[in-house]
Specification:
The protein is of the alpha+beta class. It has one domain (about 35-225). The chain contains one helix and 13 strands; from the N terminus they run H-E-E-E-E-E-E-E-E-E-E-E-E-E. The chain has one helix at about 15-65, and strands spanning about 65-70, 75-80, 80-85, 90-95, 135-140, 145-155, 160-165, 170-175, 180-185, 185-190, 190-200, 200-210, 215-225. The strands form two sheets. Strands 3, 4, 5, 6, 7, 8, 9, 10, 11, 12 and 13 form an eleven-stranded antiparallel sheet that branches. A two-stranded antiparallel ribbon has the order 1-2. The longest helix has about 50 residues, at about 15-65. The chain is elongated.
């Protein structure tokens, strides 16, 4: 008589299955969290570069002597152009033509006949009231990203003295032939640093200028993942 041999195959116990499921859950959570963190980092970096490019665009307008018409005098001239950050609304900024002032600029230290190739008209400060400066573009920063702090730096004894703030009005203006002027409330200088933040992470934009007194000469516009000493705090 033939005998049939039955081999018993032991499967996973409930505890073992729960352990495997828990491990898969932990690995998935780590991967998803890492992916989200990477995406947030990329979005913050890209937005910071977008802001830096807006500043470069204002620089190009100012250095090229792009003309605009003064809204008060109705005279056309070669104006300074700039970017205004009003930290009351830290997720917006404005690209403007500095063409609302009624007198020749003192900020770029130049008194030149209106409409001349080197005209520097305006006050290096964005004014949006009646008869104010022309808005070229208005920008809104999305994805919970904001301008959290700014600094203006001026040369002092071979180094730089910098003043930072998380409130007030901050303006960077450019004009022919190669002039920069930075103004934060009552402080002026030739170099600016902008801190762009989101959920505890930050990037920094440095707009570097040269010279001990106006007219300051502009240097570079750069982006960094870390504060740039001594300009960014």
């Amino acid at each position: 008589m033939a005998h049939t041999s039955i081999t018993s195959s032991k499967g996973f116990t409930l505890v073992e299955m729960l352990i495997v499921i828990a491990i898969i859950g932990v690995v998935t959570a780590v991967v998803v969290t890492g992916q989200h963190s990477f995406e947030r980092s990329v979005i913050l970096t890209n937005t910071t570069y977008d802001i830096a490019l807006s500043i470069r665009e204002a620089q190009a307008y100012g250095f090229s002597g792009k003309s605009a018409t003064n809204v008060v005098t109705a005279k056309t001239g070669r104006y300074a152009y700039g970017v205004d950050f009003n930290l009351v609304t830290p997720n917006t900024y404005t690209f403007f033509a500095d063409n609302g002032a009624l007198s020749l600029s003192s900020c770029h230290k130049s008194v030149i006949p209106l409409n001349s190739p080197e005209q520097k008209y305006g006050d290096c400060y964005f004014f949006k009231g009646s008869g104010g400066d022309q808005v070229v573009k208005k920008y809104i920063i999305n994805n919970n990203i904001m301008i959290s702090r700014v600094w203006v730096c001026a040369p002092s004894g071979g180094t730089y003295t910098c003043n930072g703030s998380s409130s007030g009005q901050f303006d960077i203006s450019f004009t022919r032939p190669n002039s920069i002027y930075v103004r934060l409330n009552a402080h002026i200088g030739n170099t600016a640093c902008i801190k762009v933040s989101r959920l505890g992470a930050s990037r920094y934009i440095l707009i570097r200028g040269y010279g001990s007194s106006p007219p300051f000469e502009v240097g570079t516009v750069s982006v960094s993942n870390t504060p740039i000493s001594p300009y960014c705090g």
